[in-house]
Amino acid sequence: METKTNQGTEMPERQRGNENVYRITIAVLGILVLLLAILWYTGRQTLKEVSHEREVAMILSEELQLELDSVLDEYNMVKLEYDSILVDKDSVIQANAREIQGLIARQADYHRIRRQLNLLREVTQNYVREIDSLHTENMVLKAENIQMREEIQEVQRRTTELTRGKAELETKVEVASALRAYQIDAFPFRLRGRGREDETDRAGRVEQVRVCFLIGENPITRPGEHNVYMRIADPHGQILRVSDDLAYSFIHQGDTLQYSAKGSINYQNMQMNKCLTWERISEFEPGVYYISLYTDEYRLGESAFELR
Q1: 45 backbone dihedrals φ, ψ, rounded to 5°
Q2: CATH number of 181-307
Q3: Inter-residue contact 187 to 294 (CB < 8 Å)
Q4: Position 170 pLDDT exceeds 90
Q5: Quick check: helix, strand or coil at residue 101?
Q6: pLDDT per residue over 102-129, tens digit each?
Q7: How remote is the C-alpha of 259 from its chain's centroid?
Q8: For the chain, what are the domain ranges?
Q9: In the prediction, which pLDDT does 172 show?
């Protein structure tokens, strides 16, 4: 009987122990569920905040990008017009712009980007003001250059006129001072006994040709000794000459000319006569012979004679 009583007592106590375990388990599960709910809610709120912050950051980045684009657009408009002035400074501005662009792309600290952007705006504005100042100075310089060019052109025009006038005067003086030969006469003759000379126009008989001429008075010609050269061209245009050697040549206005006969005069600005003679080397041919007279500076005159 005692044994049955003890067994009956033990059964309720075991049931109560199991109930306590169940309750504890349920309580623990409830707490876990509550914790999970809290974590889920907190995570959701954090996710919303992160998403919101990301949206705000994107909005700020867009605003910064737009502001950067505005600064660069303003700068580039000026750069297109004055690119030659900004060659050195452009690299500084472009480097700062690239740095800000990188900060925006990385969504770096907003205030840091703002400081960099404000600095870039200040730099570009200073450059723009400097360019405006240079442009103003350039316009003034252009106006001064135009005036200076006009003055230079006027001076050049006057100089050209003076030079032309001087050249014309020099030409007139040169022409006026030139020596001239007048009354150029040729006397072909043959030699007879006792030094007698007989004029003849028979080509086969002519032994000498004497050319006499009058040099006119000229008060502005250089006085003193002057060489006089005579050139006689045969009917074929060949100059009658002793030799082709340079000893029988002279230079006139840069040209080397052979002469037939040479003499000199002591000119004292007064009228004077002069004769030069060519002695036959080979027999004359019938035809017209042309005579030219020169000094070292001037061409005195021309004449001609004919042999038959």
Answers
A1: -65, -40
A2: 2.60.40.2560
A3: no
A4: no
A5: helix
A6: 777 777 677 777 777 777 777 777 777 7
A7: 52
A8: 12-177, 181-307
A9: 43
